[in-house]
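Escalation from tier 1.

The customer reports that the assembly of two entities below gives different structure tokens on two consecutive runs. Tier 1 could not reproduce it. I'm attaching the input and our single run for tier 2 to review.
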Amino acid sequence: MIRTERALAFIYVAAMIAIAIWAIPSNDRYNFLAVRYLGANTRVANMLFTKPPNLSLAGRLRLDRLQLELVGKYVKKPIKPGDAIVPTNLASWPDLSDDLIPVALSDEPDWMTFNEGSMVNVWKGDKPITLHGAEVQAIVRPDESKKTWLVLLRRSDLVPDYLSNSDLAKSDSPVKMRLDGLPHRPQQPAAHKS
Amino acid sequence: MLSTFLTQLQNYFSKYFIIGSFCPMLACTFLNGFLAYFLYGAWHTWADANILPASAVGGTFVTTSIIVAIVLAAYVLASINMFLRRTLEGRWGDWLRSFFISSQMRRREALVARLNEAAMDMADLADSPNWDKKIGDAWKTGHQIHPAVAWQAGAANTAIDNDLTDLETSRSQGGLVSAEVLERAANSIARALETCNMDISPILDKHHRRLVSLVQYADDRARGRYARLRNELNSNFGIQEEAPTRMGNIANTIQGYVMRRYHCNFEIVWSNLQQIVPDGNKTGATLQESKTQLDFLVACCWLTLVSAAFWSIVFAVVDPSRFGFLAASIGGPTLAYMWYRAAAEQYRSFADVAMTSFDTFRLDLLSAMHLQLPADVEDERYIWENFDRLTTFGQARNFSYRYPKQQ
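Tier 1 run:
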């Protein structure tokens, strides 16, 4: 014979599971919103997202936790301004093509303006090594303990003989980089990544 | 800082308060705060700024305030500990009691049925001297009538051997050796003995020795089992009506024992008994320690339940999380139940100490109440019965007071 306590325990557990499944809303619906267009491989930083208006307490608590999870990740698929940044659309490392050249950056950039999609010009000493400006493919930090960042540029955006020209490659002259264009939404997304 | 605070706390409160109420409350607060620290950024930030940097003046003030709040909460907990314990004992309304009591009744009935079964085994095995006599008589008969006939192995021998082998197998597994099968084997051996001379039948002699050994085992086992089940019954249920919870029934065992042994209503003399047991006495210290451990476990049980309820609400309403809700609403009560079971076992230990205290100090208690000391067991039962009638029912019962002689 089933004892009263066991029957009650069974009913209680069943009730709790039922409540969990049907009565407790999923808080996955609370997400940060992108403040601007975020292309694929954009590194997510605090300034790139904002909380939705009229957020409930549950939402605020969820986003407080989520914030730590988002920062430092890379966008997988482009996000339009005002769209949600969902954790499943983020990766811990950008999805990169093979034909990229790293250019070192000594300080952490301003992620709002200097991120994937920004246009830059690069000089080594007084010699430009970009043709008509290069589009940043991603900015990464290979070693988290160091302050050095690497800006990844397409090889095709650099002067063709940059790597083969011993003067440029072996020169001790510092590399200088100038921001020439803010990250923007590509006009033709299909042709954006080569 | 905490150790200094605890030392100072001990000067104001007893160590029993610190262990029984303050420690559970401190642990509960810490664990809940720890959990919230990892779940909620705002609390994380506030704790980092105000609690963890204890060197800062503000941090020290906040930490001290929190500990004072914990002391106050522990004091409230200590004040309501009896209520909380009685709730676990099943001091509920009649409707709720009737709902749960049947389960406890069934548990008791199952135990009583096993006890009766053990008693029947003992009764059956009480016949074993008769089996010996029957075998002895058969041996004499066989010896006189068939002095030159030896026992021949055959179907009858196989039947005896099979019975004995089965019983020996059961014995080797610590199992029951049935009195019925033993009697059957004894009868078979007796019948066999009537047909031959055992002195020249070593197989039969060996069967007999095996039987004696099995009877001895069965008797020891039945007595041991009976005693164990009797103790189990006495340490799980009192002699008064069943309580709806396990802990309540264990609590009843104290009253049950004192009533059964001395015909005394323990509840009316418990407070007096605590006064009688000297502070420096080992029994008094053991009684207090045992009570403190019980209070500790009861407090842990309730604090776990309250925490589980709190987090269930948080995960259901404030910060919806299915996993969190299930962990709090199912894991919390499971943990509380484990505390409850530990508390019930500790109650058994406390009951033992309380019974021992009564055994040891009951005559001192009578002396302290200036009542005449009893001459024998019957006299003592008479005194306690009449004391109960006077105290509980207000019946007219007269006692002559005895005063210590003046020096």
